[in-house]
Design goal:
The protein has 20 helices and twelve strands. By secondary structure, the protein is mainly alpha-helical. Helix 2 links the parallel strand 2 and strand 3. Keywords: Aminoacyl-tRNA synthetase, ATP-binding, Cytoplasm, Ligase, Nucleotide-binding, Protein biosynthesis.
């Protein structure tokens, strides 16, 4: 392609189920390649399998891509709605001599394949005299070359050579007039101006056949790049037994989309030793030369590391938006305005240790619960008479101080010194009273997030109960 030609990539999922994590990565690679070069990223829904394609699956794909943050140019294209165009190309190939009528029945073809299990099917109608054509339905087959080779110049796999005598004359248009997937893909990619076909290497065997369709129509070939599949941590093909495999499952597990983009970009592609990066860097750096040939392995520990990095870098607005999306994806209730205010007030400390959004919400539980605080069995041990005595003294000490972390720490330290104990001895009952559990953020961070009135009310609840 010329230096001035616009790069056009596409993502073409089949709407037969959820958006697989492998499909999401393919979409990301196409998006990065186009966006990093000022090109276009198109979306085509390959819905020709009417028995399995559903509107619900199409909507799930669109929602998944939107959640992942991948925008596309123009409206999504329905492959099924272009069936007349596909049939038109098949008939044009027939008129040009690049295709022929095949009257072989399904039973005849099955019998031939049974008798010749290791040979590609060669239709007896390929070179038949038109005068011998019966008055019967026929399929249109590609008149593929029978000698020589078809070479796939692949940006990832290198040159892949296929002997033409190992390929049969693929059906372009079935006898009922419906186009095949192999024809539809080529016609759509050509008509949409796709310059780079970036897809999983499970499509590599189809590419030689598709190249022959391009050549039969004298159409320019796009650049091909077949990326390796994603395997589980055990090195086997990714499946449900490995845990989450659908993009929606990762959203429901609380991995934010920016973390997923970062992690998926590194899953089979590398830029030196860079592991953590933002979208701008990914767009600038991404190139097909950095994609490896070996299958990538899904590693949840690495994903958590990447997720922790991106959660830690969120500002309050982005954090709250991410939490809203997570709660929706996991089917949980929305946050109240009060809960949101408290989480924002403690967001800096909450982000420090959280690897996922559920972990962050777990740490933020103190901000989300209402009075009276229910104290679990482990935390209840700190609310013994000595602990409650310290809480009563601390309540009196802080009710009139300026509500700053420095003043609160100084007051707690003074009470601990007066009681002849370390600060930890007062922190334990304080943590139990404020959060009802032993694992929480700093007690002073909780006090700052809850504010004076709520903090004092929670402390008084416990001391009154004791009294």
């Amino acid at each position: 392609m010329s230096e001035t030609e616009t790069i056009v990539t596409r993502f073409a999922p089949s709407p037969t189920g959820y958006l697989h994590i492998g499909g999401a990565r393919t979409a990301l690679f196409n998006w990065l390649y186009a966006r990093g070069r000022g090109g276009k990223f198109l979306l085509r829904i390959e819905d020709t399998d009417r028995a399995r394609s559903t509107p619900e699956a199409t909507e799930a794909i669109l929602q998944g891509l939107t959640w992942l943050g991948l925008d596309w140019d123009g409206e999504p294209v329905s492959q099924f709605e272009r069936r007349d165009r596909h049939a038109e190309v098949a008939r044009e190939m027939l008129a040009r001599g690049g295709a022929y009528r095949c009257f072989s029945t399904t039973d005849e073809i099955a019998a031939w394949r049974e008798a010749h299990p290791r040979e590609p099917f060669v239709s007896p109608w390929r070179d038949a005299d038109p005068d011998s054509f019966p008055d019967a339905p026929f399929a249109i087959r590609l008149r593929a070359p029978r000698d020589g080779e078809t070479v796939i110049h692949d940006a990832v796999q290198g040159d892949v050579t296929v002997a033409n005598d190992q390929l049969d004359d693929l059906i372009l248009l079935r006898s009922d007039g419906t186009p095949t997937y192999m024809l539809a893909v080529v016609v759509d990619d050509h008509d949409m101006g796709v310059t780079h076909v970036i897809r999983g290497d499970d499509h590599l065997t189809n590419t030689a056949r598709q190249i022959q369709v391009y050549q039969a129509m004298d159409w320019p070939l796009p650049s091909f790049a077949h990326i390796p599949l994603i395997h589980g941590e055990d090195g086997k093909k990714l499946s449900k037994r490995h845990g989450a495999v659908g993009l929606h499952e990762f959203a429901a597990l609380g991995y934010p989309p920016e973390a997923m983009r970062n992690y998926l970009a590194r899953l089979g592609w590398s830029h030196g030793d860079d592991e953590l990066f933002d979208d701008a860097q990914a767009r600038d750096w991404f190139d097909l030369s950095g994609v490896g040939r070996a299958p990538a392995r899904l590693d949840f520990k690495k994903l958590e590391h990447v997720s922790s990095h991106h959660i830690g870098g969120m500002d309050s607005n982005r954090l709250m938006a991410a939490l809203d999306d997570f709660l929706q994806a996991s089917g949980q209730p929305v946050l109240s305005d009060l809960q949101r205010d408290r989480i924002v007030a403690s967001s800096e400390v909450l982000r420090e240790k959280a690897k996922t959004l559920p972990q962050l919400l777990d740490q933020a539980r103190f901000a989300m619960i209402e009075r009276p605080v229910e104290v679990d069995e482990k935390a209840l041990k700190a609310l013994d008479p000595a602990g409650l005595d310290m809480l009563g003294t601390l309540t009196a000490a802080v009710q009139n101080v300026s509500w700053s972390r420095e003043e609160l720490e100084a007051s707690a330290q003074a009470v601990a010194s007066d009681k002849g104990v370390g600060l930890g001895k007062i922190a334990a009952p304080l943590r139990a009273a404020l959060a009802g559990r032993t694992s929480t953020p700093s007690v002073f961070d909780m006090m700052m997030a809850l504010g004076r009135d709520e903090t004092l009310a929670r402390l008084r609840d416990q001391t009154k109960t004791a009294g």
